[in-house]
Design the sequence.
């Protein structure tokens, strides 16, 4: 087989897995809370900044510069972003389900969009518009097969995504908490009746989204660097992925992410590299024209 | 309308007309006033979509950018020598000479007149708005918000990538619509044109919102199913609201570009610009005609005061305001004031859920 095409396919799948990590949190939050989190890209950004702060030695903690190994920084960044996500859920999104309000969807989107602007411009004010490079996870480039070489960091990010996607899928489909999450996604009232604390499920979904987005941001930081609007393009791709996979579908998100990765990789080779980020939008148009409920989504039921 | 409302409206109009008379030697203030008007048009027309029809679009700044670029590219001679040769070039040059006097057509000889460009911009924004609306308003859910966010980033990327035509981030120089004798923009006339467009926008929105059509939109906002049961063609009216609001955005973007912005850059399509429009509408008061006007005036003035602090400070403040307003008083500033005014019978009490 043509090694060139094969290497592009592998590259596409790798990008797809990385996108899947970002999109997974978004789709989980949507399936549980019916809220599109527009600040998801900023969770991703915070993951990268936390890793940078912990590992680069630029930040001091009681006059000791923090320069721990990146591999330890990654889980700490995940937890930090998850705690932040829980705080956001408590402070901002909880009223959607505990208070009667008009048009909760509009409220959630505007609030998270405002939060996204706040975090972006907060980052610009605090650390400035500079691109920062945290240390590498796995230095050098690795030989895969033929004349295909991949950067160690990219392989590491792929490994992290595969691992975390696996754990998430196990958590959702294999544990009781995961089943409770699925039940909440299917029918909120019904799951309250059988004794599931649905407000707690919201919190778990947000925490999961924070963990995944923080992991993605931290694992990708050595590759794509860290700057205030680093999350903008990835989150738009995640939006495309969750629409393509069907809003709220977990397997859909993973499959759609890999499809998008391959489309981008092949498109940038055979059509134009500059248009790499535009293909996602073309995919989105295609989905909305021909299959508005996505690959794995269920057709909406009219009340 | 009560007497109080009429007086306020008249005062606002007189104030708007009087600004250039007092400040005609201060181009800075006229420019700020004109940017207030630009944002009033954008946030009012965006408010038609979110505040009245309940549809959230993030592409409003993108439509203003599309309008500006359409008109800018056409009038800056995007068609170039290959197409605009011979008769067309001569006739276009002649039209430009007649409309703008000598001195206009040196740099932009292959372009059409900006005024025609502005109409073209409005048409293009309407057309794209219709396509986008048809595509993502068929299904319910947050598709419009997701799609428009992707759309505006994509348009920005394309404008940046195709720098052979748009000059990308270098900026596209476009002709002024109205210049003084020395070739500089005539700020006072530009301001009056913007003011006229603002008044027209608000008048059209007022008529629309207080008609039967406005009732359809409000019904869709409150409950799409019930609106459909009551015989409102939900998809048709959602698309119409989207098209109207994008047409206004395209028109305002193109006119403002030709009157005050001489160099177009893809940065005017950034999500940041959308954030400004959103913040003005939300802070002023969603779902009212007065709200966006108050919001635009207040935030642009605040922004000018905060330029000294840091280039990012205004956006940080506006984002905080959006979060606070959404969380604690969703009616916005006008919502706070209007309860006080309603108690004193100064403005009409019942929300106009009926048609006169």
Sequence:
């Amino acid at each position: 087989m043509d090694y060139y095409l094969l290497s592009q396919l592998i590259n596409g799948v790798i990008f797809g897995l990385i996108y899947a990590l970002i999109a997974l949190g978004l789709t989980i939050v949507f399936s549980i809370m019916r809220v599109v989190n527009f600040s998801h890209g900023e969770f991703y950004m915070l993951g990268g900044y936390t890793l940078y702060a912990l590992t680069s030695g630029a930040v001091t903690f009681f006059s000791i510069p923090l320069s721990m190994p990146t591999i330890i920084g990654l889980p700490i960044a995940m937890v930090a972003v998850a705690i932040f996500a829980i705080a956001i859920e408590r402070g901002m999104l909880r009223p959607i389900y505990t208070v009667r309000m008009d048009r909760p969807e509009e409220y959630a989107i505007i609030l998270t969009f405002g939060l996204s602007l706040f975090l972006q411009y907060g980052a610009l004010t605090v650390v400035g518009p500079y691109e920062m490079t945290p240390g590498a996870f796995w230095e050098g480039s690795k030989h895969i097969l033929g004349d295909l070489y991949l950067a160690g960091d990219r392989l590491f990010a792929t490994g992290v995504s595969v691992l975390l996607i696996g754990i998430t899928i196990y958590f959702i489909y294999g544990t009781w908490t995961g089943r409770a999450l699925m039940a909440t996604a299917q029918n909120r009232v019904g799951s309250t009746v059988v004794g599931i604390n649905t407000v707690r499920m919201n919190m778990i979904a947000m925490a999961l989204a924070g963990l995944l987005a923080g992991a993605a941001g931290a694992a990708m930081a050595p590759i794509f660097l860290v700057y205030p609007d680093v999350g903008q393009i990835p989150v738009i791709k995640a939006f495309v992925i969750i629409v393509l996979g069907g809003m709220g579908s977990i397997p859909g998100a993973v499959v759609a992410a890999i499809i998008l990765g391959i489309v981008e990789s092949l498109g940038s080779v055979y059509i134009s590299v500059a248009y790499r980020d535009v293909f996602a939008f073309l995919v989105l148009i295609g989905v909305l024209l021909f299959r508005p409920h996505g690959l794995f989504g269920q057709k909406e039921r009219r009340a | 309308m009560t007497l109080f409302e009429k007086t306020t409206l008249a005062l606002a109009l007189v104030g708007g007309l009087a600004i250039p008379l007092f400040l005609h030697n201060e181009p800075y203030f006229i420019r700020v006033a004109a940017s207030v008007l630009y944002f009033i048009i954008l946030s009012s027309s965006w408010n038609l979509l979110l505040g009245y029809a309940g549809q959230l679009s993030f592409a409003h700044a993108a439509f203003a950018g599309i309008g500006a670029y359409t008109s800018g590219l056409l009038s800056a001679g995007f068609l170039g020598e290959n197409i605009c040769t011979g008769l067309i070039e001569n006739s276009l040059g002649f039209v430009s000479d007649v409309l703008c006097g000598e001195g206009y057509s040196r740099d932009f000889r292959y372009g059409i007149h900006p005024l025609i460009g502005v109409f073209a911009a409005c048409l293009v924004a309407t057309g794209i708005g219709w396509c986008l609306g048809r595509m993502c308003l068929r299904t319910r859910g947050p598709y419009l918000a997701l799609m428009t966010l992707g759309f505006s980033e994509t348009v920005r990327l394309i404008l940046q990538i195709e720098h052979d035509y748009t000059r990308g981030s270098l900026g596209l120089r476009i002709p002024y619509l109205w210049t003084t004798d020395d070739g500089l923009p005539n700020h006072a006339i530009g301001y009056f044109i913007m003011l006229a467009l603002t008044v027209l926008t608000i008048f059209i929105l007022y008529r629309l919102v207080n008609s039967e059509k406005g009732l359809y939109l409000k019904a869709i906002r409150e409950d799409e199913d019930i609106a459909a049961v009551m015989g409102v063609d939900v998809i048709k009216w959602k698309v119409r609201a989207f098209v109207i609001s994008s047409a206004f955005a395209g028109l305002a973007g193109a006119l403002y570009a030709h009157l005050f912005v001489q160099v177009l850059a893809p940065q005017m399509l950034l999500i940041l610009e959308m954030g400004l429009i959103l913040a003005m509408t939300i802070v002023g008061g969603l779902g009212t005609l007065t709200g966006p006007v108050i919001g635009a005036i207040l935030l642009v003035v605040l922004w000018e005061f905060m330029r000294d602090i840091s280039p990012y400070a205004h956006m940080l403040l506006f984002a905080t305001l959006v979060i606070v307003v959404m969380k604690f008083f969703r009616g916005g500033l006008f919502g706070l004031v209007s309860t006080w005014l309603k108690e004193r019978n100064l403005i009409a009490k019942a929300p106009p859920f009926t048609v006169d």
The interface with chain B takes residues 36, 38, 92, 95, 102-103, 105-107, 109-111, 113-115, 117-118, 121-122, 124-125, 232-233, 236, 239-240, 243, 247, 274-275, 277-278, 280-281, 284-285, 288-289, 292-293, 300, 302-303 of chain A (CB under 8 Å).
